[in-house]
Amino acid sequence: MPNLDPESLLPLPTAVFHVLIALAGKDRHGYSIMQDTSARTGGKVELSPGTLYSAIRRMLEQGLIQELSENPEPDNTDERRRYYRLTRFGRRAAEAEAARLRSMLSQARATGLVTGRP
Amino acid sequence: MPNLDPESLLPLPTAVFHVLIALAGKDRHGYSIMQDTSARTGGKVELSPGTLYSAIRRMLEQGLIQELSENPEPDNTDERRRYYRLTRFGRRAAEAEAARLRSMLSQARATGLVTGRP
DNA sequence: GACAACTATATCGACACTAGATATAGTTGG
DNA sequence: CCAACTATATCTAGTGTCGATATAGTTGTC
Question: Residue of A15, A24, A116, A117 with fewest CB within 10 Å of its CB?
């Protein structure tokens, strides 16, 4: 029952975009999303539990991600883990957000506010 | 008395980045910032008064912008207008935010979350 | 095998950001 | 004259983020 228009969710909260990036390559559980985000950003972005789990709850409600009913890593037996997967709608929302970010950068360059490549 | 480290202000709120873009080319008063933002984004971003004026207040406190003591457009006599100018610190903060946005886009591309150019 | 550190999820309160409504008042155009 | 527009400002409600706290299972090490 996801929202049909990704545009209506823009701008995506920073934490939400980081979760989408973390889930793009593979299905992950919450703690793995935290670790991946920290590693990917060289420690610059550390999602706190409050930020992460409230973002996950909202993203499930909005249909950006779904919770898996089965453990995709059967060799790991930690029953506490809850795995999440990106939905097609989540991917569309990420594309829309990326377009918005590109547009912001393009405008910042056009006015001479910032230098550098596209 | 501005904060010395622009990094500590990141991520900049969306409204703040739009105000910085609007002030990059020329000094403007609040209402002009609203109009410029609306025109630049093709009507996609409409800063509401609540958003704009609370952003301006914060940006003054943080030293991202300063209020001009003189009217830079002497041919216009509207005494209600209050003009603002980008500070060097504001420009540095914009550069830092732009770098952050580029990094987010780069990561989104690297994972295959989104397609398209840098 | 005791203990610390780490893994993992979850909730709470405080604070920050945004939108929309409301207020006030000067300016412009028909 | 009146409406629409210009211009700034405040308030409330809803959302997003952080840090603290809680709970509990797992791993490593001495």
Answer: A117
CA distance B49 to chain A (A): 19
Q: Do A94 and B116 touch (CB under 8 A)?
A: no
- Say if B67 is an interface residue toward chain A (CB within 8 Å): no
- Regarding beta strands A65-67 and B28-29, do their DSSP bridges make them parallel or antiparallel, or are they unpaired? unpaired
Report field, pTM of the whole predicted structure over 0.85: yes
Q: Is the dihedral of CA B68, B73, B78, B84 positive or negative?
A: negative
The reported pLDDT for the residue numbered B70 is 80
A54 CB inside 7 Å of strand C: yes
| Chain B interface includes A39 (CB < 8 A) | no
The C-alpha atoms of residue B82 and residue B71 are separated, in whole angstroms, by: 8
Give the three-class secondary structure for B2.
Answer: coil
Please state the length of chain B.
Answer: 118
CATH 3.60.20.10 applies to domain B10-110: no
pLDDT per residue, tens digit, chain B (118 aa), is 556 789 999 999 999 999 999 999 999 999 999 999 999 999 999 999 999 999 999 999 999 999 998 887 766 777 788 999 999 999 999 999 999 999 999 999 999 999 977 6
Give the residue extent of every domain in chain B.
10-110
